[in-house]
């Protein structure tokens, strides 16, 4: 007896959401092929080596590892046998211009005590803040993160009712900065918790205080580190997908999503039309429409929403080891408001930017030669809007070197053994992120969650979307949740 033909799916883009969607669909019996323009998987979650140093190229913070474990469990495998990670005892080391240094441990009570000792801010204020962060997450997670916002069923259940009844607790009518300034006495503590707006590329002086859910992930749940580096998330999931029968095509950029009679019927790749029953785009939704669906009606209102911030990243091989630095480090600017005004209003980089340094060799020593460190130095940058990036990069590099040299008491310039640079232009060209925005739309207004594109097309049948530019948003956890939502929407033939 003949077996029924599997429903075929083409996934455009081997970013983390595309890989996770492929795994979920393969587990449901779909025949899945993934088409990636680059010659490597992962999109932003990739890696490279230079002069004996290994660098994770993109995301550096790992939270909610259960979303990765879930993909292995779904596939009948023991996650620990395929992907290993640890919970970090500390989340970040903070350096302020006034000389204050603060190591944020991952346990809330100890964190609160540490902040009190360093700044005088009452520990109870921090404990109350993190308890409130947990409440916000519990109210919103099922409604906003685990379901499509564009299906009526999302709003017609008991968990949705819980959200409606607790709407006041979501604090949507104040900005993050307004809420934090009201709660904390010390401006250094306000700055510490305001920085979580940058986790989705937003401005703490505009984004709603609802975004104070983000610290819950890092402190109440925890921050983690994959033992083989961040790129091992990509590697382990690609291996899992291949074991499930998913086919990956690299160096295989898609030229068009082919439609006929109001439905997607396949893709054009290398000049040839390849027919598929379903198409899922993990490519930025703006470029999906503009480049792959130019003949279709464009949802301009959704595509023209304000973009998130981008990044300027210096990958430095440092010929020295700094005991005062950890895996995650933040060197704050003196004037946070001015920094974000430059970023979102003037579309430039402040002369005194906050600097983030990630050093994976602290936990994975073979990422750098003995006695050296691999520095991933990131500065928040505006989206690419035609700025004079070469001049801006040169000036920012000088400002960053001076800032770090002053705060660390050592001339950083002479320690840089090798360097690579990633800026909004190269982010845009390598990952197809519209204007180099890291998270698609910003969350700089209270309606932002509803102004992201759905995980499916309401105009073109059999066309779906996943990844950081659509619901529920950017960053590894939300991209994995995007995959979960999208895969559940894809129906088999028959």
Summarize the structure in words.
The structure is a single chain. The protein starts with 7 loop residues before the first strand and ends in a 5-residue tail after the last helix. By secondary structure, the chain is of the alpha/beta class. 33% of the residues lie in helices and 20% in strands. Strands 8-7-16-17-18-15-19 form a seven-stranded mixed beta sheet. Among the domains are: 8-46 and 230-306 and 444-489, FAD/NAD(P)-binding domain (3-Layer(bba) Sandwich); 113-219, no CATH class. It has 15 helices and 20 strands.
CATH superfamily of the domain at 8-46 and 230-306 and 444-489: FAD/NAD(P)-binding domain
Structural class assignment: alpha/beta
Oligomer: single chain
CATH C-level category of the domain at 8-46 and 230-306 and 444-489: Alpha Beta
Short description:
The protein has helices at 16-27, 66-74, 108-119, 123-145, 158-165, 176-183, 187-194, 214-221, 231-243, 285-292, 300-303, 336-345, 389-408, 424-431, 476-489, and strands at 8-12, 31-36, 47-50, 53-56, 62-63, 85-87, 90-95, 101-105, 223-226, 247-250, 254-260, 263-269, 272-275, 278-281, 310-318, 328-331, 355-358, 373-381, 416-422, 463-465. By secondary structure, it is an alpha/beta fold.
Defining key terms:
494 residues; 20 strands; FAD/NAD(P)-binding domain; 7-stranded mixed beta sheet; 5-stranded parallel beta sheet; 15 helices; alpha/beta; 20% strand
Describe how the helices and strands are arranged:
Layout: E1 8-12, H1 16-27, E2 31-36, E3 47-50, E4 53-56, E5 62-63, H2 66-74, E6 85-87, E7 90-95, E8 101-105, H3 108-119, H4 123-145, H5 158-165, H6 176-183, H7 187-194, H8 214-221, E9 223-226, H9 231-243, E10 247-250, E11 254-260, E12 263-269, E13 272-275, E14 278-281, H10 285-292, H11 300-303, E15 310-318, E16 328-331, H12 336-345, E17 355-358, E18 373-381, H13 389-408, E19 416-422, H14 424-431, E20 463-465, H15 476-489
Parallel strand pairs: 1-2, 1-14, 2-10, 7-16, 14-20
Antiparallel strand pairs: 3-4, 5-9, 6-9, 7-8, 11-12, 12-13, 15-18, 15-19, 16-17, 17-18
Helix pairs in contact: 1-9, 1-15, 3-4, 4-5, 4-8, 6-7
């Amino acid at each position: 007896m003949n077996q029924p033909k599997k429903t075929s799916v083409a996934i455009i883009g081997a970013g983390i959401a595309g890989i996770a969607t492929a795994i979920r669909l393969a587990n449901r019996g779909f025949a899945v092929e993934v088409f990636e323009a680059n010659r490597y998987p992962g999109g932003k979650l990739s890696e490279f080596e230079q002069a004996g140093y290994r660098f994770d190229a993109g995301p550096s913070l790992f939270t909610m590892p259960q979303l990765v474990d879930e993909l292995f469990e779904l596939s009948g495998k023991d996650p620990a046998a395929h992907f290993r990670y640890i919970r970090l005892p500390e989340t970040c080391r903070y350096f302020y211009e006034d000389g204050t240094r603060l190591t944020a441990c991952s346990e809330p009570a100890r964190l609160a005590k540490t902040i009190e000792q360093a700044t005088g801010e009452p520990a109870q204020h921090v404990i109350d803040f993190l308890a409130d962060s947990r409440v916000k997450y519990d109210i919103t997670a099922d409604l906003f993160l685990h379901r499509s916002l564009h299906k009526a069923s999302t709003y017609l259940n008991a968990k949705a009712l819980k959200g409606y009844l607790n709407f006041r607790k979501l604090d949507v009518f104040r900005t993050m900065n307004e809420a934090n300034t009201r709660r904390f006495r010390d401006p250094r503590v306000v700055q510490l918790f305001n920085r979580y707006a940058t986790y989705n590329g937003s401005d703490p002086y505009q984004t709603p205080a609802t975004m104070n859910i983000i610290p819950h992930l890092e402190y109440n749940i925890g921050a983690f580190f994959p033992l083989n580096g961040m790129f091992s998330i990509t590697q382990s999931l690609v291996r899992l997908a291949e074991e499930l029968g998913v086919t990956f095509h690299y160096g295989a950029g898609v030229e068009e999503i082919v439609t006929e009679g109001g439905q997607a019927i396949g893709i054009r790749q290398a000049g040839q039309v390849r027919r598929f029953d379903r198409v899922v785009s993990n490519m930025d939704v703006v470029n999906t429409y503009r480049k792959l669906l130019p003949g279709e009606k464009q949802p301009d209102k959704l595509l023209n929403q304000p973009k998130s911030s981008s990044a300027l990243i210096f990958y430095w091989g440092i010929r020295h080891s700094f005991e005062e630095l950890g895996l995650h480090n933040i060197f704050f600017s003196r004037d946070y408001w001015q920094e974000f005004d430059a970023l979102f209003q003037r579309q430039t980089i402040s002369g005194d930017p906050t600097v983030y340094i990630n050093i994976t060799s602290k936990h994975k020593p073979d990422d750098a030669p003995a006695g050296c460190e691999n520095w991933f130095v990131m500065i928040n940058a505006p989206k690419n809007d035609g700025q004079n990036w070469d001049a801006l990069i040169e000036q920012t590099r000088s400002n960053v070197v001076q800032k770090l040299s002053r705060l660390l008491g050592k001339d950083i310039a002479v320690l840089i053994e090798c360097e690579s640079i990633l800026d909004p232009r190269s982010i845009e060209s390598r990952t197809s992120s519209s204007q180099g925005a890291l998270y698609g739309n910003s969350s700089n207004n209270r309606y932002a969650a509803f102004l992201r594109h759905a995980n499916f097309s309401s105009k073109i049948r059999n066309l779906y979307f996943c990844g950081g530019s659509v619901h529920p948003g950017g960053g590894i956890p939300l991209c994995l949740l995007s995959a979960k939502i999208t895969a559940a929407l894809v129906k088999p033939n028959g």
